[in-house]
Here is the input.
Amino acid sequence: MQSNDVRTLLNCTVPTAAAGVIATAVSGAVAGGKGAIGAAAGTLVVIAFMAIGMVVLQRTAKAYPSLFQMMGLVLYTVQILLLAIVLAVFKHTSLFNTRAFAFSLLAAALVWIAAQARAYMKTKILYVEPESAGTPS
Here is the structure.
């Protein structure tokens, strides 16, 4: 993983974790201990899914640069579908408050996507390899 990829991962993880802390505090105040557990679990699920997706996308970009854009679109679709599956699986659980889980999952996903878009806009990544001075044209 390149240094700009690690920087992007950090620029996405930190705001998402901060949103998760806020969601956990609000859910704890509104729904009690189970609400706080649900909000924390939702945030952790989003961070895990999105971070794994970013790593997969970067490895694909390195191995198959021509598939990067298509893989990015497929990856986002799969991530959203997996988050929907997680919501469906935990719909009737009594381990935590499912509403707090769902709202924090949604909020964390939106924060991650916004942070990722901002990180990519701010990062200056060369998309054309500059010629070195020693190689003839």
